[in-house]
Amino acid sequence: MKFDPSDRKFPELQAHQLEELQSEGPVSGVGLRKKLSISQIRTRASRAGTGVRAAPVKITFDGCKPGRVGLGTDGPLMHCCPPMPKGPIVDFVPVRNMSKPLRVRKALQCLEGEELEIYVQKLRKGYALMRALPLDDPRCLEQHRMCHCAHSTGAYTCQGVGVDIHFGWLFYPFHRFFLYFHERILQHLLGDPDFTLHFWNWDNAGQGGCGKPGDIIPPMYADPTQHSTFHHNRHNRTYHPDLVVDLWVDAWNETRLPGGFSKEVTKARNLETMHWAMITLKDAPEGFSGRVYRAGYPRVTPYVGAGTLEVSAHGALHKWVGIDMDDFSFAAGDPLFYPHHENIDRLWDVWRNLSPNNTVPNDPDFLDAEFLFYDENIVLRRMKARHALDMSAFGYEYEDVPNVEWLTQGKGDAGVAPPADEMPQLAEDLSELTLSDGSERTF
Ligand code: C2O
After folding, report:
1. Catalytic annotation present for 235
2. What pTM value is reported for the model?
3. Environment class of residue 12 by beta-carbon count within 10 Å: exposed (0-12), middle (13-18) or buried (19+)?
4. Per-residue pLDDT tens digits for 2-51
5. Largest CA distance in the chain
6. Is the CB of 314 under 6 A from ligand 1?
7. Which of 167, 328, 330, 394 is catalytic?
8. How do residues 199-248 score in pLDDT, each as one tens digit?
9. What is the DSSP letter of 107?
10. Is the CB of residue 148 below 6 angstroms from any atom belonging to ligand 1?
11. Ligand 1 in contact with 341 (CB < 6 A)?
């Protein structure tokens, strides 16, 4: 089926919403994909926020208004705010139930036999149920899509400025919560509190472990006859079951799409990408976590601000799957979004365990950032980033995939990754930023 972007339906905006948006003026960001050295990052990171009354980003229900489709600030307006809560917002702090073993999120490519069969059945049933809910039920798949959209397009505002939880330090905690509630809702719909969504182990080329490569599209999401787990608006390349994913596609300055590389070259590039994202910047944890992002900070140009893994393999996978997955407004409407992000969630933990230097930010504006999600009972829950840090509190862990090839390989042999002393532009070059009201602000 050929995808025509003009087929997308955008709900009509109310007159007052339009006015609100038009009065906003353009937001301009800082230069795209400029690379800084580690010491420049450090200087800018410590300068960041000087003179600003620091406060954490807080997502509030009232702060939601239509956002902008796409990565820029001139895309069509889109309404993706959640339905009104029917009761009070309830704080959520995950607490591990010690009487239960941790549920294990496993590598999809290693499931087999009866376990695989049962899993695929449940997965299909879970998504069929999720899609069958009324559109205004916050638990339906479309509302999951909208929830992600609302956090990515400036729909949620904080101190009057549109929020984007990507391209900065909120990336990991936000997605952990998002996945957690997604999984909880699937468990609820299936009537199976132990149902565990397994991950797409795309960084695993198949050496060691169960010996099967994870770097191709997981077949249970790629069968067009299965409408619950399949999504039409993907790039054609996802129809090739053996095509190795390209973890460097369009990262940095390269725009070449995969298909032009042999399997060997793609695999070598992938290892190099992972090695760079996870290891090369080991003495600069802020390079992994992403830019400092406080209340009132404007959204920035795509890619600026993202940590190493977010800017490379994470973004590349979105592009590789393509079309809806490559658009923040639509990505979470593709069921493949979730196992992709579980791998990111897993790699966050893998990274933290690689070195004692790999610490998350201890700034209160990171730790106290607040998010809102509907739970399986349609109760709106509020949580803080600090409560996302310990995965076991949520009752799950990841299968220990033994073969992390990129630990020892991928040290620049494919000539893809930038040199070790370069990293993405992370800290705000705040003097260059223009706020969403069009005014220049010097920090
Ligand atoms: Cu919220 Cu992979 O994007």
Report:
1. no
2. 0.85
3. exposed
4. 334 334 433 333 444 334 433 333 222 222 233 444 444 444 444 444 44
5. 61
6. yes
7. 328
8. 999 999 988 789 999 999 999 999 999 999 999 999 888 888 888 898 87
9. B
10. yes
11. yes
Q: What is the pLDDT of residues 145-188, one digit of tens each?
A: 999 999 988 889 898 888 999 989 999 999 999 999 999 999 99
- For the record, the structure tokens of 80 come out as 């993706």
Q: Is the CB of 144 under 6 A from ligand 1?
A: no
Using CA atoms, how far apart are residues 439 and 34, in angstroms rounded to an integer? Answer: 23
CB atoms within 10 A of CB 353: 9
Q: 3-state SS of the chain: helix, strand, coil percent to 5?
A: 35, 10, 55
Task: Give the residue whose CA is nearest to atom 3 of ligand 1.
Answer: 328
Domains of the chain in sequence order: 61-411 (1.10.1280.10)
Find, among 240, 271, 246, the residue nearest to 258 by Cα.
Answer: 246
Q: Which residues contact 439 (CB under 8 A, 6 or more apart)?
A: none
> Strand, helix or coil at 332?
helix
What share of the chain in percent tops pLDDT 70?
Answer: 74
309 close to 280: Cβ distance less than 8 angstroms? no
* Alpha carbon distance 341, 192 (integer Å): 22
Task: Tell me how far apart the alpha carbons of residues 180 and 173 are, in angstroms, rounded to a whole number.
Answer: 11
- Token reading at 207: 């050496």
**Cα 53 to middle of ligand 1, angstroms:** 28
Mean pLDDT, range 96-125, rounded to an integer:
97
144 is catalytic: no
In the predicted structure, residue 257 carries a pLDDT above the cut 70? no
Give the helix/strand (H/E) hosting 44: helix 38-47
